[in-house]
Design a protein that fits this description.
Layout: H1 5-12, H2 18-32, E1 34-35, H3 37-46, E2 51-52, E3 57-60, E4 71-74, E5 77-79, H4 83-94, H5 99-115, H6 121-140, E6 142-147, E7 150-156, H7 158-167, H8 169-172, E8 176-178, E9 181-185, H9 187-200, E10 204-211, E11 215-223, E12 226-230, H10 232-240, H11 251-255, E13 257-258, H12 259-265, E14 270-274, E15 277-283, H13 290-301, H14 304-315, H15 320-340
Parallel strand pairs: 1-9, 4-7
Antiparallel strand pairs: 2-5, 3-4, 6-7, 8-9, 10-11, 10-14, 11-12, 12-13, 14-15
Length: 341
């Protein structure tokens, strides 16, 4: 039994070989980590919304309970739309005279939405509870406004509560950790956590961004001269009964994969960034080539060339600071040149 991060690394360092080490780490988290489907619901709720007003407006409080104020703050969408967002506002309007009925209808709606993606009823219930808890807390929040020189208390309307979720989802659905081990999160949390962990185990690891069904993040590692894909999220989805994944795929297919295979297993998969660096072109199943990818990693992603610059500078008696300043100046010159083109 592993109780903390040090024990995990101690076990890993007894294992020989990059593949064996990686699979041990990934199997541990596959057995012990939880995916935050409450956060995923918010991701689906976002729809095409890309802009919200920085100004709040006042409206009648349609989700008023006994101790709530008559008015509520709302926050309008100014760009894009969301089916889920609009459906929830409709539920609010249809049940404006009965708060308990509103909560019941809202719970049923969120349950239906999560069930359309996840086949595990227990997980659906757990995550609906998490979403509803945050919504009800948001609706109970109050603030003060000044109108005609007088101060009034108002509640938050569900439109504002939902937009707050969309703007700062991590504030409401953060990843969880225990004794240095991640216990719950979403794809970006897994990737951000696993990269330094794998590196501590002596494995070259990089964070990858792109698309799955939605925006996605995962990890690639270097094993000898080839790069492998490590996608804990997809493995957890299969474990949890996420719908729409071909039944022949297993969790282990995604824990340690050839890069070309991920595009075959999921046609919508793309790679757009590696280590937060935007790639010169989007990589997908139609244009992926292993040799070209290795060359890309060596020439554009790897920092080995920069290390060589520092090494050469130090050998010539130049200080590290001078080398860094010279490199910064060169990068600035290069960026200015690109802008002028």
């Amino acid at each position: 039994m592993i109780n903390n991060i040090d024990e995990l690394l101690s076990q890993v360092n007894k294992i020989k070989g990059t593949e064996a080490k990686t699979k041990f780490i990934m199997n541990y988290f596959l057995e012990n980590v939880r995916y935050d489907y409450a956060y995923l619901f918010i991701a689906y709720a976002q729809g095409t919304i890309t802009g919200v007003s920085s100004n709040f407006t006042i409206a009648m409080n349609k989700t008023k309970s006994e101790s709530d104020e008559e008015f509520a703050l709302t926050r309008p969408i100014i760009q894009g739309e969301s089916r889920i967002f609009n459906d929830i506002l409709r539920i609010r309007d249809e049940n404006s005279e009965d708060y308990n009925q509103f909560i019941q209808e809202l719970r049923s709606y969120i349950t239906k939405e999560l069930k359309s993606h996840l086949g595990n009823d227990d997980l659906v219930t757990q995550n609906v509870d998490l979403v509803m808890k945050q919504i009800e807390q948001g609706l109970r929040e109050k603030t003060k406004i000044i109108f005609n020189g007088n101060e009034y208390a108002v509640n938050y309307d569900i439109s504002k509560v939902l937009i707050d979720f969309l703007i700062e989802p991590k504030k409401y659905f953060p990843p969880q950790f225990q004794n240095g081990l991640i216990t719950s999160g979403v794809c970006e949390d897994y990737a951000t956590y696993l990269v330094p962990l794998l590196q501590k185990a002596g494995i070259e690891a990089h964070e990858v961004e792109g698309t799955s069904e939605l925006g996605h993040a995962w990890v690639i590692i270097k094993d000898e001269e080839k790069y492998k894909s490590i996608d804990l999220t997809r493995a957890v989805f299969i474990r949890d009964g996420f719908l729409g994944i071909p039944p022949e795929q297993t969790s282990k297919d995604w824990l340690y994969s050839n890069l070309e295979d991920i595009f075959k297993m999921q046609k919508t998969r793309t790679i757009t960034k590696i280590d937060q660096k935007t790639l010169p072109h989007v990589i997908n199943g139609q244009n992926f080539d292993e040799e070209s990818f290795i060359r890309l990693m060596e020439e554009e992603i790897s920092d080995s060339s920069f290390r060589n610059i520092i090494k050469q500078g130090l050998e010539k008696g130049v200080t590290a600071k001078e080398v860094l300043n010279a490199n910064q100046a060169e990068n600035t010159k290069e960026r200015e040149g690109k802008v002028s083109e």
